[in-house]
Design brief:
alpha/beta; Arc Repressor Mutant, subunit A; phosphorelay response regulator activity; DNA-binding; OmpR/PhoB-type_DNA-bd; elongated; Sig_transdc_resp-reg_receiver
């Protein structure tokens, strides 16, 4: 699965945190805000694949956030959450530009399934298998093999490798990897990419496949 970025807008901190942690377990990069002003600010500076939006949020109502995002022409898909479960409320939410609507309380497994369904609309389907330099990367099954040997990878390692293989030999900037694989809370000056890349290289074995381009990023020639 291609690494994706999600914005969760929920004014109840415990619920917001739980939603974010649930989605992060599935290797999504997740940012969290608690009001409409912050949501609009984040949407103006970051490209999100999915917006999980509570309808009843302070400062700027969720309806306004939804309408502005829909009117902007952004490709971000909107999953609206609300405590109102009446058919009329669902219809209103969809009319505002939401792509899907989930009433509270909800099962997190259903939330996850709906997010995955929206993600399938964001980008064209991935090729069944990505291949480069003797590697076979299967995004659907989250499997990597080299010379026919299965290589178990952690979520971030798999996401990094997928970005490199997709680049088809081009250099992938460190900043791009930070944006695609981690969330906004990552320090841009951190050595997280370098450390994760070191672990990935070790697991991929010899001869080394990933080349470092000093001051720029990484590539698989």
């Amino acid at each position: 699965m291609d690494p994706m970025r999600i914005l969760v807008v929920e004014d109840e901190p415990t619920l917001a945190s739980t939603i974010a942690e649930w989605l992060r377990r599935e290797a999504f990069a997740v940012d969290v805000v608690h009001d409409g002003d912050s949501a609009l600010e984040h949407l103006s500076v970051n490209a999100y694949d999915v917006l999980v939006l509570d309808r009843d949020i302070p400062r700027v109502h969720g309806d306004v956030v939804c309408r502005r995002l829909a009117d902007s022409g952004a490709e971000t898909r909107i999953l609206m959450l609300t405590a109102a479960a009446a058919v009329r409320d669902r219809v209103e939410g969809l009319a505002l530009g939401a792509d899907d609507y989930l009433p509270k309380p909800f099962a997190f497994v259903e939330l996850s399934a709906r997010v995955h369904a929206l993600l399938r609309r964001v980008r064209p389907p991935n090729p069944p298998v990505l291949e480069r330099a003797g590697l076979r990367v299967d995004p659907a099954r989250r499997q990597v093999t080299r010379a026919g040997e299965f290589i178990p990878l952690a979520n971030k390692e798999f996401a990094l490798l997928t970005e490199l293989v997709r680049a088809e030999g081009a250099v992938v900037a460190t900043e791009h990897l930070l944006e695609k694989v981690w969330d906004e809370h990552i320090d841009p000056f951190t050595n997280t990419v370098r450390v994760t890349m070191m672990k990935l290289r070790r697991k991929l074995g010899e001869p080394a496949l990933i080349e470092t381009v000093p001051g720029v990023g990484y590539r698989i020639p």
